[in-house]
Design goal:
Length: about 160
């Protein structure tokens, strides 16, 4: 999600790869909570008449990781290994949410993961072990993959 001028919000979904470039397959433009436009890409066709000099790629992002809210980046998960409930936490009937801070690399893999808060160390260890295995669709900034700075919530509840 990118906030544009005059309160417009753009959401990029269904990321496609075209050669070495990632592009959104769906773009939605919202204004004041209402959809104003939607672009859907059905196909990408190379123009063989263009030379490499004709194609200008976005410059490399050097501004560091981009903050993306956890709820938004959750929709970008490609491979989500399910959380498991540690046996000792089950026995003690411990419940709650483990909050993690993550840096997701341009390739969609978690590069750094830190514990922010936890109801119990057993849950924290289990959540960190699993979340490290999650992979994401690369987040695009100006058409190029960018690192993401986000928060991940891992919720544990007894059933």
């Amino acid at each position: 999600m990118v906030e544009g001028h005059h309160g417009l919000i753009f959401t990029f979904n269904r990321i496609l790869r075209f050669g070495s470039v990632y592009i959104p397959g769906d773009i939605t433009m919202m204004e004041n909570g209402k959809m104003r436009a939607h672009l859907h890409v059905d196909a990408i066709i190379a123009n063989h008449e263009l030379s490499e000099e004709d194609i200008v790629l976005p410059t490399e992002d050097t501004g560091g990781a981009q903050y993306v809210p956890g709820a938004m980046i959750a929709g970008q998960i490609k491979n989500k290994v399910p959380l498991y409930y540690p046996e000792m936490a089950k026995k003690k009937r411990i419940q709650g949410t483990v909050v993690l801070h993550a840096i997701i690399g341009k390739d969609g893999h978690i590069r750094d993961l830190e514990l922010i808060s936890t109801p119990d160390d057993y849950l924290a260890d289990a959540a960190m072990d699993v979340v490290r295995q999650w992979t994401y669709t690369p987040y695009l900034l100006n058409g190029a993959p960018a690192e993401v700075d986000t928060t991940i919530n891992a919720s544990y509840a007894m059933r």
